[in-house]
Amino acid sequence: MNQRPHLNTGLRTLALAATLTLLALPASVSAQNNVTLYGTIDSGFVHANHTAGRQGPESFSGITSNIIGGSRWGLRGTESLGRGLSALFQIESGFNAVNGSMGNGGRAFGRKAIVGLRGAEWGEVTIGRQYDPVVNLVQGLTADGYFGGIFATPGDVDNYDNGARINNAIRYATPNFGGLQFEGMYATGNVAGKVGAGQSYGLAGAYSNGPLALAAGYFFADGGSQRGDREKSPDWPYREWTSSAGSLFNSPINSGFRTASKVRIARVGGKYAIGPAILGLTYSNAQYASDGLSIFTGTAKFDTVNAFATYALTPAINTGIGYSYTRMRGDKAIGAHYNQFNAGVTYALSKRTSTYVIGGYQQAVGKTLRDGHTVEASASVGSYGIDAGARTQLIVGMGLKHNF
C-alpha cells in the first residue's frame, strides 16, 4: 500500500519529462533548420507589332506570362551542422501563369535543383542544376534585375537573361572579403568514353563598395559530339547540342548557330548609384565556333554594349531607360547590327506586389544565317525570342507581378 503513491509519483514524473521533451524537440529542430516556400507570379498583356507569319510580318496582342519576371515557385532551406557549417538545398520550378503549364522544357525543377555546404570561413559549394558564375555575379549589374528580359541583349546571345542553366555542375563561391567575391564552376557532359564532351565551366569575380559595383566573368560550353536524329532533326547529320549548358539558341538572332561546337562568353560590367539614380554599363563578347558537325563555318562573334539608367521618382515608382548595340561578325557572307531601345516604369503597390509598363524597339541591319542559308537579319527584342520576320520590332507589355 505504501508503494502505490511512490509509483504514481514516478509515472507522473516520467510522463511530465516525456511531455517536456516532446515540446522542446520541435523548438530545437526549428532553431537549427530553416525551410522557406517562395515564388513569383507574373502575368499581363503584350503587344508586338511584328511577328513572323505565313504571309509575312503580323502583329500580335494577347495575355501572356513572364513579362518582367519569370513565374516560379520553389523551396530553399538550411540546416546548421555546428561550428559555422551549414547544409543547404534549393529546388525551383518555372511555370506559365496564364495556362499553368510547366516551364524550362517541362522539367519538374528546371530553374534550379541544388544541394550543398556553406562555411562561414571558407565559402560555399553547391552541386546540381544551377546558374553559372557570370550570371551569379555579373547579371546583378544589368537592367535585367529591374525590368526583365525586354531590356536584355538582342536575342540574349550572351545569356544576359540567364536562359541557360547548367546541369551536372559543381560550383564554389568564396566568402565576401570586404566587398570582393569570386566564383568558379565546372560541369561534366556525362558522356561515356568522351572526356570533355559537353562540359561547361566558368569563372567570375565581383567587387562592391558603397555606390560602386564592378564584375567580370568568362563562361565556356562544349556542344558535345552527338549527331542529330535523321527523323527528328532538321540538321541531320549535323550536331545536336548536348552540352551540360542548356540551350543558348533561343532567338532568330543566334538560332542559325545552334550546331556550334563551342560557345565562349566573356562579360564585364559596372553600375554606380547617385542618390535615387543608378547608371549601368556592360560589355560582352560571345563566340560560336564551328567544326565538322556544324551547319555553318568559321566563328560567329557577337559584341554587345548595354547601357541603362534608372531613377526612383518616389520610393514606390521606379523608371528606367536602356540601350543595347550588338554587332555580329562571321564569314564574308554575313554580318549584322542590332540597335535596341528600351523604357519602363514599375509601381510598387506593396512590398510584394507591383504593376509595370515596359517596352522595347529594335532595328536589325545586315545578313545572318538560318538553316545554313544566308538571310536578311530579323529583329527580336530582348530575350523574348519572338521572330519579327522584319527588320524592326516593337514590343509593349503591362502587367502585375506578385512575390510570395
Describe the structure.
The chain is mainly β and about 400 residues long. It has one domain: Porin (Beta Barrel), CATH 2.40.160.10. The chain is built from 3 helices and 18 strands. Strands 1-3-4-5-6-7-8-9-10-11-12-13-14-15-16-18 form a 16-stranded antiparallel β-barrel. Strand 11 and strand 12 form a beta hairpin.
Topology:
Elements: H1 3-32, E1 33-53, E2 56-65, E3 72-82, E4 85-94, E5 112-119, E6 123-130, H2 133-138, H3 144-147, E7 166-173, E8 180-187, E9 200-209, E10 212-222, E11 262-274, E12 277-289, E13 299-312, E14 317-329, E15 335-348, E16 353-370, E17 373-376, E18 392-403
Antiparallel strand pairs: 1-2, 1-3, 1-18, 3-4, 4-5, 5-6, 6-7, 7-8, 8-9, 9-10, 10-11, 11-12, 12-13, 13-14, 14-15, 15-16, 16-17, 16-18
